[in-house]
């Protein structure tokens, strides 16, 4: 099995990270997860542009161009013989004696990437998933795809302990997003989701969904909505690179709609399928 390590493709066992890498010490870096269907990356350019933009937002200018990254990952996928799965990549501010302030100029960033086999979660697509509500305790720059994921991890663990797939986060009364996904509610035929600001990650799946809705005349409304709106929704869906469009059938033990995936969600799923093929 091969990995990308800085500019090269090497055996995973040969990759070594310094104990003072800032990613390891501070979570000082950014990451992306790109879906791979039949050996090909899906919406790679959108993900890589977001990687560049996340890096810029934390004062890092990536040491690799989008073109270089795309060709490195394409080679990695081929060398690992990946069919359907993901490429995970992260870039940190590099290794340097521990100091909160940025390291001196000239310290090289650390880039790693690996692939993983991952089937499309077709059972979840068909049956829907259960969720819980959890207070959103994260920082105020959730638009950055940062390696710091403690708030997300603690919420996801709460969901896992409740036998649920996802934690739907809320800041007070306002729903923001999932612990590792965006949240969509469907009311009277319209898709409603939190605006793309500092409170959420603007998901690539969310952006794909926005395009799909525009092309098929389904209203896609970006506005704040409350816990009460969520609980009163006709349908709920979670969206992410790995989850695609997954119906939510339960929130905190209460059925969404009639407790089965709804027809607008099904329509969105089939339109999403067409994007992949
Ligand atoms: N998570 N919001 C959060 C907090 C996320 O972590 C993710 C993705 C999304 C959806 O983004 P996208 O559609 O671009 O995948 C929204 C990835 C998959 C992860 O951390 O594994």
From TrEMBL:
Q: Name one Pfam family in it.
A: Aminotran_4
Q: Name one GO cellular component term.
A: cytosol
Please indicate if the UniProt record lists Transferase as a keyword.
yes
Q: What is its EC number?
A: 2.6.1.21
Q: What biological processes does GO assign it? A: amino acid biosynthetic process; carboxylic acid biosynthetic process; D-amino acid metabolic process
Which EC class is the enzyme in? transferase
State the Gene Ontology terms under molecular function.
Answer: D-alanine-2-oxoglutarate aminotransferase activity; pyridoxal phosphate binding
Determine if Heme is one of this entry's keywords. Answer: no
Q: Which SUPFAM superfamilies match?
A: D-aminoacid aminotransferase-like PLP-dependent enzymes
User: InterPro entries attached here?
Assistant: Aminotrans_IV, Aminotrans_IV_CS, Aminotransferase-like, BCAT-like_C, BCAT-like_N, Class-IV_PLP-Dep_Aminotrnsfr, D_amino_transT
Alphabetically sorted, this entry's keywords are: Aminotransferase, Pyridoxal phosphate, Transferase
Q: Which reaction does it catalyse?
A: D-alanine + 2-oxoglutarate = D-glutamate + pyruvate
**Names of the cofactor(s):** pyridoxal 5'-phosphate
Q: Which family does it belong to?
A: Belongs to the class-IV pyridoxal-phosphate-dependent aminotransferase family.
**What role is this protein assigned?**
Acts on the D-isomers of alanine, leucine, aspartate, glutamate, aminobutyrate, norvaline and asparagine. The enzyme transfers an amino group from a substrate D-amino acid to the pyridoxal phosphate cofactor to form pyridoxamine and an alpha-keto acid in the first half-reaction.
What does the record note on quaternary structure? Homodimer.
Query: Which PANTHER family does this one have?
Result: AMINO-ACID AMINOTRANSFERASE, D-ALANINE AMINOTRANSFERASE
Q: What name appears for this protein in its UniProt entry?
A: D-alanine aminotransferase
Q: Which organism is it from?
A: Neobacillus piezotolerans
Q: Please name the gene that encodes this protein.
A: dat
